[in-house]
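User: Could you go from structure to sequence for me? I need the amino acid at each position, not a summary. C-alpha cells:
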C-alpha cells in the first residue's frame, strides 16, 4: 500500500469530503437557478367575490393571474458568473481539503514508523541483555563472577522489558489513531529518507491549493459584488390575468384578459446593506489572500530549514551510534575475556542502545521533515 492510497482511504472517511461535496451541490444548484428563464419562481393569483352573504343577486367576480419575475439587465449574467465562481471555488476547496488530510496521514505514518523503529531497537537491546544475563548466571555458577553481577544483569534486563512494554503501548495507541484516520490496519510503504537531494531541489509543480483557494475566494467575492450591482432593485414582474364578472339580475357574463407590469424601486434602505456586506466580504477575502501568501512563504522557509537541520542531525547521530556500537562490541569481547567488568559493559551496551534508538527516531524525523516540506509546497503523496 502506498501513502497515496492511505491518503485516499482517509479522504473517504473524512468529514471534509462530505463538506466539499455539499458545497459542490450548492454551487450546482446556484448554476441551475441562474440558468432559469425567470429571476424567481413564478406565482399564480386567484381572487373570487360573490354576494351570497348579502343580496344573493347572483353577482360574482373571478380573477386568475400568473406572475413571472423578470431578470434585470445584466443580472442573469452576473448570477451565472457568480455561480461558476462558486463551483470553481468548491472544486479548489476539495483539493485543498484533500491536501490537509494528506498532511494528517503523512504525519501519522511517519510518527508510527518512528515508534515502530524504536520498538525494534529496544527489542534488540532486550534480547542482548537476556543473553548476557544468562551468560552471567552461568559464570556465577562456575565461580567466575560474583552474585552481585547476576543481580545487576537481571535488573538491566527487567528495565529493558519495562521500556519495551511502555513503547509497545505507545505503538498500539498510534496504530489505533491510524485506524481511526484511515480505516486501515496495514501501514503504507514509506519512501526511505535520503540526504542526497538538497532541499532547494524540491519545488512545487503547481501553485499551492490553499493559495489557489484564497485567490478563487477573492474572485467569488468580486462576482458577488457584480451581482449586487446588477440587482439594485427587486425583479420586475409581468402579470397575465383572466377576469370573469357576472353582474347578476339576468345580465350577461363579462370576460376580459389583462396584462400588468410591476416595477419595484431600489432604495438606499435596501441596497446599502447589501453593498456593504458584499464589499466587506471582498475586503476580507483580499486580506486573507495576502496573509496566506506571507504565511506560505514563511512555512516553506521553516520547512526547508527543518529539513536541513534533520539532515545534519542524522549524520551526527549515525556517526555517534556507529562509534558506540563498536565500543560496546569491544567491551563485550573484553568482558568475555575477563578483562572488563560487568558494570562497564552494561553502561556501554545501554549507551549503544540509546544511540540506536536515537538513530531510528532521527531517520523517521528526516522522513517527516521531507514530508512536511512537500506539504508546505502543496505537493500530494
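Assistant: Here is the amino acid at each position, in order:
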Amino acid at each position: 500500500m502506498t501513502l497515496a492510497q492511505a491518503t485516499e482511504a482517509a479522504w473517504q472517511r473524512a468529514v471534509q469530503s462530505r463538506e466539499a461535496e455539499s458545497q459542490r451541490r450548492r454551487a450546482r444548484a446556484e448554476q441551475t437557478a441562474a440558468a432559469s428563464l425567470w429571476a424567481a419562481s413564478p406565482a399564480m393569483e386567484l381572487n373570487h367575490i360573490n354576494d351570497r352573504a348579502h343580496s344573493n343577486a347572483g353577482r360574482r367576480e373571478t380573477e386568475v393571474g400568473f406572475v413571472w419575475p423578470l431578470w434585470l439587465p445584466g443580472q442573469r449574467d452576473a448570477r451565472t458568473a457568480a455561480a461558476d465562481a462558486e463551483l470553481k471555488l468548491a472544486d479548489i476547496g476539495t483539493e485543498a481539503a484533500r491536501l490537509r488530510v494528506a498532511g494528517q496521514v503523512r504525519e501519522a505514518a511517519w510518527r508510527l514508523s518512528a515508534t515502530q523503529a524504536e520498538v525494534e531497537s529496544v527489542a534488540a537491546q532486550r534480547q542482548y541483555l537476556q543473553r548476557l544475563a544468562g551468560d552471567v548466571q552461568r559464570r556465577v555458577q562456575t565461580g567466575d563472577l560474583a552474585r552481585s553481577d547476576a543481580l545487576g544483569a537481571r535488573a538491566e534486563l527487567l528495565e529493558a522489558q519495562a521500556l519495551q512494554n511502555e513503547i509497545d503501548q505507545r505503538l498500539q495507541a498510534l496504530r489505533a489513531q491510524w485506524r481511526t484516520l484511515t480505516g486501515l490496519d496495514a501501514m503504507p510503504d514509506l519512501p526511505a529518507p535520503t540526504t542526497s537531494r538538497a532541499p532547494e531541489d524540491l519545488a512545487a509543480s503547481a501553485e499551492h491549493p490553499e493559495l489557489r483557494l484564497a485567490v478563487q475566494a477573492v474572485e467569488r467575492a468580486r462576482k458577488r459584488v457584480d451581482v449586487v450591482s446588477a440587482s439594485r432593485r427587486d425583479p420586475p414582474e409581468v402579470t397575465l390575468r383572466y377576469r370573469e364578472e357576472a353582474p347578476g339580475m339576468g345580465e350577461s357574463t363579462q370576460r376580459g384578459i389583462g396584462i400588468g407590469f410591476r416595477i419595484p424601486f431600489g432604495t438606499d434602505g435596501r441596497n446599502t446593506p447589501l453593498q456593504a456586506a458584499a464589499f466587506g466580504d471582498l475586503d476580507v477575502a483580499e486580506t486573507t489572500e495576502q496573509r496566506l501568501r506571507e504565511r506560505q512563504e514563511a512555512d516553506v522557509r521553516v520547512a526547508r530549514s527543518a529539513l536541513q537541520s534533520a539532515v545534519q542531525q542524522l549524520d551526527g547521530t549515525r556517526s555517534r551510534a556507529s562509534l558506540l556500537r563498536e565500543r560496546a562490541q569491544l567491551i563485550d569481547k573484553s568482558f568475555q575475556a575477563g578483562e572488563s567488568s560487568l558494570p562497564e559493559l552494561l553502561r556501554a551496551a545501554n549507551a549503544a542502545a540509546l544511540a540506536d534508538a536515537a538513530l531510528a527516531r532521527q531517520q523517521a524525523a528526516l522522513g517527516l521533515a521531507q514530508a512536511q516540506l512537500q506539504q508546505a509546497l502543496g505537493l500530494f503523496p
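One structural detail worth keeping in mind: Helices lie at 3-13, 15-34, 75-141, 147-182, 209-230, 268-336, 342-376.
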